[in-house]
């Protein structure tokens, strides 16, 4: 008798006296957790998002919609970016008048080609205030996952208040589980056993979030 057969035999014997239960899995376990932990209102929720984004070392900016092109142009200029990767569905008005050379997302781009791009600008699917998390789902204004993982500088535009939710349970209701979801809490970072923080290991070293009304 192999070890596998021995283990499976023990499992069968342990389950032999268990009563039959045809309750669907989604109903078998009570999930009475809170969908949100406080009612902060729109302004309070947006402020909490900004606070938690900054706590994760993201750089947060706020502006009105008509100020967005100027804001993005200024951020790219301050970064010294000579090229910016643009998803195919990013609104043209967002980068109107921005002088930085635009690079289209192409299917045949190699990681080395993407690494030569200075910045990437995307929208988002939703932003979670309680965790300071930005979620991308591959929609046209966000592009494929890899364009936000290889370039070293990511500017993410969040529409306020439409795309801001208080908690993860509320966010999940808005997201399609079959889409390629990327959950971002601050710039890419990791720590070794001595807790020395290293940024930019598996994603952009710098994350800037623009909250747009």
Automatic annotation (TrEMBL):
Residues 106-212 form the LUD domain. InterPro entries: FTHF_cligase-like_sf (IPR024185), LUD_dom (IPR003741), NagB/RpiA_transferase-like (IPR037171). Gene3D superfamilies: NagB/RpiA/CoA transferase-like. It comes from the Bacteria. This is Lactate utilization protein C. It comes from Streptomyces cadmiisoli. The lineage of its organism: Bacteria, Bacillati, Actinomycetota, Actinomycetes, Kitasatosporales.
């Amino acid at each position: 008798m192999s070890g596998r057969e021995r283990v499976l035999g023990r499992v069968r014997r342990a389950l032999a006296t268990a009563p039959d239960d045809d309750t669907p899995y989604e109903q078998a376990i009570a999930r009475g957790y809170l969908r949100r932990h406080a009612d902060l209102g729109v302004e309070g929720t947006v402020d909490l998002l900004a606070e938690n984004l900054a706590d994760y070392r993201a750089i947060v900016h706020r502006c009105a919609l008509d100020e967005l092109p100027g804001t993005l142009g200024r951020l790219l200029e301050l970064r010294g970016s000579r090229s910016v990767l643009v998803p195919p569905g990013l609104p043209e008005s967002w980068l109107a008048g921005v002088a930085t050379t635009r690079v289209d997302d192409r299917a045949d781009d190699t990681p080395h080609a993407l690494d030569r791009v200075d910045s990437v600008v995307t929208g988002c699917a939703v932003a979670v205030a309680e965790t300071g998390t930005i979620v991308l789902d591959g929609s046209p204004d966000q592009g494929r996952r890899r364009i936000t993982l290889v370039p070293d500088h990511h500017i993410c535009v969040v529409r306020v208040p439409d795309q801001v939710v208080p908690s993860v349970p509320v966010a999940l209701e808005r997201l399609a589980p079959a889409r390629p979801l990327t959950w971002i809490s601050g710039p890419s970072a990791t720590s070794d056993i001595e807790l020395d923080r290293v940024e930019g290991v598996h994603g952009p070293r710098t994350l800037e979030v623009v909250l747009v009304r």
